Amino acid sequence: MSMMAQNVYIFSGVVCYLLYYEYSYISSKRIAHYYSSKPQPHQFTILVRGIPVSSGSSCSETVEKFFTEYYPSTYLSHSVVRRTNKLQHLTSDAKKLHRRLAHLKSETNPQRRSIRDGFCGLFGHKVNVLDHYGKKLETLEDNVRMEQLSVAGKEVPAAFVSLKSRLGAAIALHIQQGTNPTEWVTERAPEPQDVHWPFFSSSFIKIWISKLLVVVAYAAVTILFLIPVVIVQGLTNLEQLETYFPFLESILNLTVVSEVITGYLPSLILQMFIALVPPIMIMLSSMEGCISFSQIEKSACTKMLCFTIWNIFLANALSGTVLYRFDIFLDPKEIPGILADAVPAQASFFIAYVVTSGWTSLLSSVLFRLKPLICSIIKRPFSGKDSDELEVPSIPYHSHIPKVLFFGLLGITYFFLAPLILPFLLIYCCLGYIIYRNQLLNVYAPKYETGGRFWPTVHNSTIFSLVLMHIIAIGIFGLKNLSLASSLIVPLPILTLLFNEYCRKRFLPIFEDYPLECLIKKDREDQNDPTIAVFYNKLSTAYEDPALMPIRHPRSTDDHNSPLLQAGV
Amino acid sequence: MSMMAQNVYIFSGVVCYLLYYEYSYISSKRIAHYYSSKPQPHQFTILVRGIPVSSGSSCSETVEKFFTEYYPSTYLSHSVVRRTNKLQHLTSDAKKLHRRLAHLKSETNPQRRSIRDGFCGLFGHKVNVLDHYGKKLETLEDNVRMEQLSVAGKEVPAAFVSLKSRLGAAIALHIQQGTNPTEWVTERAPEPQDVHWPFFSSSFIKIWISKLLVVVAYAAVTILFLIPVVIVQGLTNLEQLETYFPFLESILNLTVVSEVITGYLPSLILQMFIALVPPIMIMLSSMEGCISFSQIEKSACTKMLCFTIWNIFLANALSGTVLYRFDIFLDPKEIPGILADAVPAQASFFIAYVVTSGWTSLLSSVLFRLKPLICSIIKRPFSGKDSDELEVPSIPYHSHIPKVLFFGLLGITYFFLAPLILPFLLIYCCLGYIIYRNQLLNVYAPKYETGGRFWPTVHNSTIFSLVLMHIIAIGIFGLKNLSLASSLIVPLPILTLLFNEYCRKRFLPIFEDYPLECLIKKDREDQNDPTIAVFYNKLSTAYEDPALMPIRHPRSTDDHNSPLLQAGV
């Protein structure tokens, strides 16, 4: 039986070696990518929040004064953020109307060019649609212009500040600016097209409070989700179902019914509920005060991962035994025993889960993109969009990464409990490799450059899986009264956590920021670059709110490259 | 009874208000002190560890090359650290001998100028002491010179790098230097006289391992210390003592004996054991890889504080009830009840503790400095030191701050359980204010500038006391079946922790570093300062190891200002 402990050691060692190798490889890739990158606006820009505007002067003046004083040689320009939520609604309406108008103009059937202006387009007299929409668009655009003028005054005490060198931006980022740490709070700027413009809070205290509220809301969602999990769990425990609903007994005794119910139905129901979760997580993350889609997605990815582990793995594994005695989690010593008792019992459920959720979701949601397809089929009759207007999809990291990582967790925790799961996972991995490779290369268009920043999440999740596996192993050897093997495993989680700590120190800083060496080398390259003056020009306007740009689409032609249309991409 | 909950709220509110006010006051003081300070070496210097020395070149060359490349405008000089432990022993021996020689030369009694060179100076023939010591000193100094030569090659891959501006030092400190985060690790340099020269480990991994080992050792010391605590606890529980040692019954029934034993003896014994702890903590902290006395003392102060709270407060309060059922601590829900049961019962012990430990230690150890006095009385016959050679004592922050904070904790936790403790604490505070004020102004000489960096420790300790008090309050109201009052208190610890979190964000960064605003203002002041060239000259030699300086004390005169003698100060 110490053979088994030995296996656990070897397995953990191999996983840790692979993790180390991959971390080192990805971090070197990240540095290499930085070295080979062209000057980009977000490398030179920081976001400053909590600007202490004195009553006499505007926010813009305050920023100008501060940065010309303290960054005299590197300060380039700034653009103050404005509260443009209303304006954004108006411009997006105008954009839609403009698009519909363009579509109608290209329409050849004259019947469709006129509608009735009464209830549901059924009564009233016929109107020329082109005129109707043209007028509507005109008033909308006038509104936009008026709103733009009024918004110019609504400054939020936050600004994107561009500097002339990467080092300058790094200094502004890393060194506390003012004597009050809650003022002049700096943050890395996202790529210009990645900015999530309608962010609300700029003050330190508001962001902090909204973060706290999001944590509470997240906990609430996670706990409420137990309800469908419990229902699913009830379906796998047929006996329990029969005791609750005795009248079902005759139906459940049919082999086919019971097989469908225990084998396929639970994970299908779970699937449907889980599909609802990623948008909720995105919503929560965007309420946190993140300023870019990339941040929102990264934060949602972590939330989604914890959610999946808690609600799919732990809740499913434990619901039959201890979910109702929730306070057991407050007693750390009992956890290994409980896990060892419950987790192996759910092996068949998770094997079915790999097939129903893993394989089918790979095929349906990743390869065929069923959900967007269904949505577009349902929406088309109402929106009047043309099929050739479909946007290129971006990669939904926040829903895919947690899914893949969860199957990694299943593989690691079940590798010695139920090795039968491994071939299923292997097929999943091979299928996944092929499908994701194809999708990433040919289908998805990246919305922003991740720079490998999702890797630490993958690493942490794998370390967590390893430690969970060790805890279950300790529990199992304990249950089987193999106290020697059980205590042989005890140092392993500690060693794994130390390994993780080492990796954090060795690699994580690279993923958080670029070192001085790279910054200065790139800055020196720029000095010899003749096109840098052009870049500086572009840089000074890169972070202007697209909603504030003047409407320039000519009404008579279909110029899709006008700035207003670009705004929503 | 909700009156009592209300009192707890008011009390917590007042304490938090005072904490906030004080934090803000001290942080403004800290900034003001920085503005008013003259240029000092440690403001311009950083310590670099983990220098990646390639086989072909020396450490010094590597540092020179790196900093001239990446800090071309601000790099000034550097001094590589060398392994000088052996040399330091030799120089300190030489110093002692030199001092003794000087003392003997001033001796007028010719009898004392000669000793017998045999066993204990009793047998053998008389030797002229001056000659004897003179020769000894000569060989010792030759050794020192040889060792200095050989040490010059023993470079540790660490160096103090001085830059020409405070901003330059801050950049080197805050931005990761190389692509490998474990190389070129920078750290704030301490004041030159504050450097703890015999630090061993320069590599990242060694420091990390030694930190881990220190944590383990610290836990061991803390647990082993329970033994004397249990003995003391046995003395306060007379009945328990009688059951263990029935033959003592007749003695213990005498009122005087039992009063002395229960009232005074326990805390006296505890006192004696506690006196042993600060040096142990200093030793542990110095093994952690700290590079300055100030860091060592700050780390020892935190260690000592946790130790005191755990071993004096919790162990004393709980030993009668649950010390033996140690696993109760793994069950968080029971803690309030246990504390509420145990803590009030020990009120009389802690009142006695305030008197015996607080008052007497203030008088004995702070005012009269009994321990150094006893030490010097014991040591004098052996060391031959003169009383006028007594060094000016430095402030032992690591033993005094935890003591004062512990009385703060007693005051906060017992304010509603046993208000009788408050007058005793008030007397302690008044006495303490007068005595400490006198000692700080007239007796102690600061070894280094703390810059208010101990305040966050005080703040955190007070917040901990408040939360502990809330937990005890919840437990007590729970025990008395006042579930309304009990649940009224529940939000209070959460609010207190949120308040603490706010303070961390609002004030802590100021204590960790100076903001860019200050740095640049001070740098600009320097530019207009005509004496800055002289300062730069001094700066480039400020961080040389004193053990490596040439021995320059003239043997015939008593020039106490020679560098060798300064070295040990």
Automatic annotation (TrEMBL), chains A, B:
<feature type="domain" description="CSC1/OSCA1-like 7TM region">
    <location>
        <begin position="211"/>
        <end position="477"/>
    </location>
</feature>
<protein>
    <submittedName>
        <fullName>CSC1-like protein HYP1 isoform X4</fullName>
    </submittedName>
</protein>
<keyword id="KW-0106">Calcium</keyword>
<dbReference type="InterPro" id="IPR027815">
    <property type="entry name" value="CSC1/OSCA1-like_cyt"/>
</dbReference>
<keyword id="KW-0407">Ion channel</keyword>
<feature type="transmembrane region" description="Helical">
    <location>
        <begin position="6"/>
        <end position="23"/>
    </location>
</feature>
<dbReference type="InterPro" id="IPR045122">
    <property type="entry name" value="Csc1-like"/>
</dbReference>
<dbReference type="GO" id="GO:0005227">
    <property type="term" value="F:calcium-activated cation channel activity"/>
</dbReference>
<feature type="transmembrane region" description="Helical">
    <location>
        <begin position="212"/>
        <end position="235"/>
    </location>
</feature>
<feature type="transmembrane region" description="Helical">
    <location>
        <begin position="346"/>
        <end position="370"/>
    </location>
</feature>
<dbReference type="GO" id="GO:0005886">
    <property type="term" value="C:plasma membrane"/>
</dbReference>
<keyword id="KW-0812">Transmembrane</keyword>
<keyword id="KW-0472">Membrane</keyword>
<dbReference type="Pfam" id="PF02714">
    <property type="entry name" value="RSN1_7TM"/>
</dbReference>
<feature type="domain" description="CSC1/OSCA1-like cytosolic">
    <location>
        <begin position="43"/>
        <end position="198"/>
    </location>
</feature>
<keyword id="KW-0813">Transport</keyword>
<feature type="transmembrane region" description="Helical">
    <location>
        <begin position="456"/>
        <end position="479"/>
    </location>
</feature>
<keyword id="KW-0406">Ion transport</keyword>
<keyword id="KW-1133">Transmembrane helix</keyword>
<feature type="transmembrane region" description="Helical">
    <location>
        <begin position="264"/>
        <end position="284"/>
    </location>
</feature>
<dbReference type="InterPro" id="IPR003864">
    <property type="entry name" value="CSC1/OSCA1-like_7TM"/>
</dbReference>
<feature type="transmembrane region" description="Helical">
    <location>
        <begin position="404"/>
        <end position="436"/>
    </location>
</feature>
<dbReference type="Pfam" id="PF14703">
    <property type="entry name" value="PHM7_cyt"/>
</dbReference>
<feature type="transmembrane region" description="Helical">
    <location>
        <begin position="305"/>
        <end position="326"/>
    </location>
</feature>
